[in-house]
Amino acid sequence: MKISFWIHEKYKEPEIVICGAQKTKELEELRQTVSEAVDETITVYDDRDAVRITQGGIIRFYAARQRVYAQTRDKTYLVHARLYELEESLKKQFVRISNSEIVNIKKIRRMDTSMSGTIHMYLQADIETYVSRRYVSRIRDSLMGKEFY
Amino acid sequence: MLKKSLSRGVVSFALCVTVNIIVLMIKTVNTVNTTGNVQAMPELVPEYAAFFENPFMALMVQTLFCGLIGFAFGCCSVIVDIARWSMVKQAVVHFLLTAFVWVPVSIFCWGLGRYLISFISVFLSMVFTYTVVWTCQIMICRREVARINEQLIQRDKATS
User: Fold this and answer.
1) Are the beta carbons of B86 and A134 separated by less than 8 Å?
2) How far is CA B153 from the centre of its chain?
3) φ and ψ at B28, to 5 degrees?
4) Which domains, ranges and CATH numbers included, belong to chain A?
């Protein structure tokens, strides 16, 4: 199997492309292996079963009813960690938006403010949430790629 | 949130008491220099001073009341962190909760309610201050959100 680099300034982020004559099981396994190697995973809980999911698939972590949840496009999982612990351990792909929520930057679609000053954030999978104005500048810095923690 | 609120309140209390003592010291030195009386103390509202046996005790209690106002403002600062509340709601609740403390203290210590016009002017000046501060914050927020949306559009163009 040939492995080569394509370097061009148009690629703002590293991208891995698997080329083949047709999509086979072998190529699908290769995609899975590369995905697991690149994306860090996190242990979450689905009812009582422990599941490992890639961080890239998580849209947001939020605290509710004294528990922390991880929400993906399809499901919501329980996380056995505090939000501040997640904030310290997660990749810089995640940013805190309020005292009770951390979101995946790549899953942010847009933001807006209402007349009364409520700051809304619209995420993928039609998820809408609120942003605390203390964290607005942090969101801006993380999108611009500045390190803040 | 309660723990954060109380810790901020305690810090604000200490800060307000410290500042008040420093101001009292400056006023005392100024009064001594002005009157030449080494036992002179800053003036107190007579109706308030009448509650105490000596003016020093009245000044110390007034200092503690200033600390109480600081405690209220410190505690209420966590209202800003409630993301689901609009800025208008945050401002109104913050104003009402802090007024619940500073209005009675001001009436007791400095005779605020003695003249209706003074009460109205202080009240209106606080409302004006809140309006200006929160209006500026909404404008700043909107500008930041617009910049964030520009970044998101550029990111989407680059990845598409």
Assistant:
1) no
2) 41
3) -65, -45
4) 25-143 (2.40.50.1020)
Burial class of residue A136 in the structure, from the number of CB atoms within 10 Å of its CB (0-12 exposed, 13-18 middle, 19+ buried): buried
3-state secondary structure of A109: strand
CB-based contact A99 B81, cutoff 8 Å: yes
B27-74 pLDDT, tens per residue?
Answer: 888 877 777 766 666 778 888 888 888 888 888 899 999 999 999 999
Cβ proximity of A121 and A130 under 8 Å: yes
CA proximity to B104, closest of B75, B65, B76, B61:
B65
Give the one of A109, A134, A137 whose C-beta lies nearest to B81's C-beta: A134
Which residue of B77, B80, B148, B154 to mutate against A (max A Cβ within 10 Å)? B148
- pTM above threshold 0.90: no
Calpha distance A118→A63 (Å, rounded): 19
Contact with chain A for residue B50, Cβ under 8 A: no
Per-domain residue ranges of chain B: 2-114, 115-160
**Helix/strand/coil (H/E/C) assignment for every residue in B108-122:** HHHCHHHCHHHHHHH
Pairwise CB contact (< 8 Å): B83 & A136: no
